[in-house]
Specification:
The chain is an all-alpha fold and 450 residues long. The protein contains 24 helices and no strands. Among the domains are: 120 residues; 131 residues, no CATH class. α11 runs antiparallel to α12, α13 packs antiparallel against α14 and α19 runs antiparallel to α20. The mean pLDDT is 91.
Length: 450
């Protein structure tokens, strides 16, 4: 490095130090702007690659990466911002080393040391990103390293083969995870399949292999892995190695193979097992033209036997308002109050003009579920829902039903002092006079300063 290059290098090292603001804590609200300034600094280093810069970018990346490691304890990293930046920077460092012809053996050795000494999780699951930028020599060295770790561990007679991935000790499980990420990133089906043959397969493994084969349009091979995953799923509790979507891959693959009847049959079987709005969308992809109505009726019939929340979701999607209204009218209040507001609210809005009484019953449920949970910060929402229920009962000339709601709330929630005064005003029809800004400000000052 000549004098001019050294001067430039030293200047940029100083700018990296300034950007990292070492010694100053960066709070959560500042992290986006902080990392954005680091990205601009990284762009300066990246722009040097076409500037006959030699090893300068490599050395600057090394300084920057080490600086991020120094900074990590001075940040609120709950959002993962610095970690994501670090991994991008790390990959740029690899590319920079390769661009100047530095040996792959040295690059891989340093990668592995970083991963080994990763006290803060900065390199967590970085293998997929590395696999996308490292050259073939480096990739092969990484594969050989992790395979050797597994083979050495398997010589221990206490380590049985063909267990579930999470049942292996860390000396096998962790390098296997790294290998799977590397294989998946490179769509290396052969390597991934060989590892599964050595250690055993999970539904999640089968899903990843099927998706890799799909990406290559190897439909028959993809079907083999999908079928294997579907067969494995019910055999045990796979925990994080389970796959909920493996069953959905099978009809897609069958369709691509021209086996449309088999695809429809498989999609219908999956829908019967879990009749939800998502499975309905999958099913209808494979229904022939002219038979949509017939299959829709079959699907609704099956869905009518599941819990009311799931049934609502499907009926809202398919605009089956009369069926929702009938189910709501027949349901007990306690059943409706147990349904998530994510299901109740869309159904309620759809029924307001079509069946006001059913909508009023759902508004009642929305209000009561908040009161039952005792979450005072949502009492204003409960009042809004109950006011809507009152208005719809009145519009339908069913005031007796509103009085029954009032009686229930007074009997079961009379000690909710943060709610009952406003509720009684709602019952009496008296409107609470809104406070002026000055009154609100004085009250807030008193609350804050007392």
């Amino acid at each position: 490095m000549n004098g001019r290059e050294k001067k430039r290098h030293d200047r940029l090292v100083g700018e990296i130090e300034d950007a990292l603001q070492l010694g100053r804590y960066i709070g959560y609200g500042e992290m986006y702007g902080f990392v954005n300034s680091l990205e601009k600094m990284a762009e300066q280093i990246a722009s040097m690659k076409d500037d006959n810069a030699g090893l300068q970018p490599v050395r600057l990346y090394e300084v920057f990466l080490a600086g991020c490691h120094e900074k990590i304890e001075e940040c609120d990293e709950s959002g993962g911002n610095l970690g994501m930046f670090f991994q991008d920077l790390f990959c740029n460092w690899i590319k920079s080393r390769q661009s100047v012809g530095l040996p792959a053996e040295e690059t891989v050795a340093q990668i592995l040391k970083w991963m080994e000494n990763d006290d803060y999780g900065l390199c967590f699951r970085i293998e997929m990103d590395i696999a996308k930028v490292i050259n073939r020599d480096g990739y092969d060295l990484l594969i050989d390293h992790f395979l050797a770790l597994i083979e050495n561990a398997l010589t221990d007679p206490t380590n049985k083969k063909n267990q579930a991935p999470f049942d292996y000790p860390n000396e096998i499980r962790l390098p296997a995870m790294s290998l799977k990420d590397l294989y998946e990133a490179r769509k290396d089906v052969r390597g991934y399949a060989a590892l599964c043959q050595r250690l055993g397969s999970s539904p999640r493994d089968c899903e990843r292999l099927a998706e890799m084969e799909i990406a290559k349009k190897h439909w028959s091979h993809a079907l083999t892995w999908a079928e294997k995953g579907v067969a494995l799923e019910p055999l045990r509790d796979w925990r994080n190695e389970s796959s909920r979507s493996i069953a959905l891959l099978k009809p897609k693959i069958l369709g691509k193979l021209g086996r449309k009847e088999d695809a429809l049959k498989t999609a219908w079987t999956d829908f019967e097992k879990s009749p939800c709005d998502f499975a309905y969308d999958e099913l209808m992809q494979y229904v022939p033209r002219g038979k949509k109505s017939e299959w829709h009726e079959r699907a609704i019939e099956v869905a009518s036997k599941v819990n009311i929340g799931t049934f609502m979701d499907l009926c809202v999607k398919t605009r089956e308002w009369e069926r929702i209204a009938a189910r709501v009218s027949a349901a007990k209040h306690a059943v409706l109050e147990a349904v998530s507001h994510y299901s109740l609210e869309p159904a309620t809005k759809g029924l307001v003009k079509r069946d006001p009484l059913a909508a009023a019953k759902l508004y009642r449920a929305l209000g009561l579920r908040i009161l039952n949970s005792g979450k005072s910060k949502y009492y204003h929402n409960a009042l809004r829902h109950l006011e809507s229920a009152r208005n719809l009962f009145s519009k339908a000339d069913r005031n007796s039903r509103w009085q029954a709601v009032v009686k229930t709330i007074r009997a079961e929630h009379s000690r909710k002092y943060g709610f009952m005064p406003d509720f009684e005003r709602l019952v009496s029809g008296k409107q609470k006079k809104p406070q002026s800004f000055a009154v609100k400000a004085r009250k807030r000052w008193k609350d804050q300063s007392s």
